[in-house]
Amino acid sequence: MEAKAIPDSPDDISTFYIQATESIQQRWPRTLKQGDTFAMFDALGDCIEPGLTPGGVFHNDTRYLSGVQLLLDGQRPLLLSSSMEQDNVVLTVDLTNPDIYQGNAIVLPRETLHIRRSKFLWQGACHERIAVHNFDTKPQKCWLTVNFAADFADLFEIRGMVRAKRGDITAAVIGGAKTIFRYMGLDNVERRTEIGFDPPPKTLTRNQALYELELPAGEGLGIIMTARCTSSDMGGSSEPRPDFTQGFSEPYRAARRGAARAASLGGTVTSSNELANKMLHRAGADLSMLVTDTPQGPYPYAGTPWFSTPFGRDGIITALEMLWLDPELARGVLRYLAAHQATTLDARNDAEPGKILHETRACEMAVLGEVPFGHYYGSIDSTPLFVMLAARYFQRTGDTDTMRELWPNIDAALTWIDDYGDRDGDGFVEYYRVSENGLANQGWKDSSDSIMHADGTLATGPIALCEVQGYVYAAKKEGAVLATALGYLSRAHALDEAAEKLRVCFEERFWIEELGTYAIALDGAKAPCRVRSSNAGQVLACGIASAERAQIVGKGLLTPEMFSGWGIRTLSADAPRFNPMSYHNGSVWPHDNAIIALGLARYGQKRAAAAIFEGLFDAAAHMEMMRFPELFCGFPRRRGTAPVLYPVACAPQAWASVVPFALLQACLGLEMCFEKREIRFSNPQLPRFLEEIGINGLVLGDASVNLRLRRRGANTEVAIVSKRGDIAIRVTQ
């Protein structure tokens, strides 16, 4: 993600620091996303004066609808209920009228009219059906008003960046049923918001639709409002359908079909615990909402609202955490990133041949270069993670055709590691910002203050992060296996040797005996940053740590200084820059915990992995919809209290949404081996809140199996319910 650490002083503020004047969760609790469009509304389904907050409807990081408000006789309705449906497709809001006065007399008693707002996104448009029903025994009259606005604010403006100049906005009413807002950007692209109503209102202006409702007793009326996002570089017709039924029902059915992916994710794993089932279903539904179809295949956009776009690191880690259950997602991520791999040197974008994308944006400020994120490569870890994902995808699927297609990209990524990643030839991969407008820190903790020494002094570059060396080790070690399978034997031998050399050097330079952990990084002078952090936990997931030291690291991660009770903090509570409310210096990130749990399980520390799962499960029970946010605060757990939320965290966030599946894999020691047609369980241990789980339709090659796992005392039994094709189950204790 881009930097948004809480600065110690104005001098520490990153260029891309996200200003926070209000809590997103408090102001905009309802989120919709489909394709390149997302929307955030308040509980009533409105967006009123969002200002520098991400309320409204966005397409390609531009806000096309900055205001919408429904009124009855000039007053806001009373909220009855507001909820997202289980598959995240439709926001349903139930409202009723307040007491409506004329003078001192009530002319419309409260709770006479019922208003149901149903909103969803489909193909760049926000569709809404407003159904009003009169439950009185006599006719009722009232005015229904919909106010609306479009500011075409760039997402980076909303995040707090000030632009010297903007384009021009105009608006026109067309035919009494549609208002069109036009914004001619400085990039010479005309962006349009087309707001259509069916049936047409009595009065329509550039900012308001006014309906005079005359409702017979027991009857109602339906109004369709469509806010469509178009631009001169999209092409094609974008006219809202005038017919009432097709204007809402047809895209509604299409949106439902498009969300069917959720059923194949969360529905694949079930348990004996109803709360756990809700968590698993929410995880699958959230991932389904964030996955966007690209020409190369499905890709999980990082998260709403700030990162609803492809991110290299996020997409890879999401795919890695879901690989055992859904390898097709990994294939889409690999092919997309290969198609966007850097091929030339471009200092403006931190691009170098073979480097894998950090992020891409299509908003006006990115197109103009006001921010460097059009195609930005300032990530030190996306490239080795890309190779890791490719190697593990091959082990999972045996998909030789895709690997041969992608081998030139994989080989180029491995070459980048040696030619550009290791800047000084010491064997470690370091980062140093080339673009003056890019990110100062380029690991996953990319806040400006996230890498420090024991006295709190910020490290200066080039910086070699501990977990990045682990990623590079795994990329070379596992890349060697892939190269062997594809027949590149000399390349495989060289990679294997390089991996072993790196492992030895890493143990010598990064281990801090007195702390019992690996240094978070080496600075530009090769001095270790002697700070306990969660980064050392991610090292374990790559296999570079010795077995003895992995045990020491694992125990340290579960101490009160590191483990809040809800999860492992990003930074130890005794570190000089610890702040439980910071973005990276003491908060709890679910995806970080999932990677750590997989690392602990790799070294046989199943109880520690289960403790992480149990803490995060308890945290999820306090979260709305049992949805894991991007992060939450690292305050210690207290009896009778809930986790403290982070005010501008993304929710949903792709690599957070898949955490339950990754934690389950860690606890079960689950590994999929295509070569031997085996599903392996190494000392499977269900956490305490799960007595039994079912894994249905687990596919390996052309075979599939339904499994049932049950906890029996200290052990977990694995039973085959049914299977199809050649597939074996192997359980080791």
Categorize the overall geometry: globular
What would the average pLDDT be, to the nearest integer? 91
Tally the structural domains.
2
**Level-1 CATH class name of the largest domain:** Mainly Alpha
Specify the CATH architecture of the largest domain. Answer: Alpha/alpha barrel
- Which sheet architecture does the biggest sheet show? 8 strands, antiparallel
Report the uncertain regions. 3-13, 236-246
Compute the separation of the termini in Å.
39 Å
Q: Find the count of extended strands (DSSP E, 2+ residues).
A: 33
Portion in strands? 25-35%
Structural class by secondary-structure content: alpha+beta
- In the CATH scheme, what's the topology name of the largest domain? Glycosyltransferase
Number of helices: 17
Strand order of the largest sheet: 6-7-10-11-18-15-14-13
What is the CA-based Rg, rounded? 27 Å
Helix content range:
25-40%
Keywords for this structure?
733 residues; alpha+beta; Glycosyltransferase; 2 domains; disordered N terminus
If you had to describe this structure to a student in words, what would you say it looks like?
The protein is α+β, with helices and mostly antiparallel strands. The chain has two domains: 10-258, Distorted Sandwich (Beta-galactosidase, Chain A, domain 5); 261-668, Glycosyltransferase, CATH 1.50.10.10. Helix 8 crosses helix 10 and helix 14 (590-602) packs parallel to helix 17. It has 17 helices and 33 strands. It has an eight-stranded antiparallel sheet with strand order 6-7-10-11-18-15-14-13, covered by helices on one side. A four-stranded antiparallel sheet has the order 1-2-3-4, with no helix packed on it.
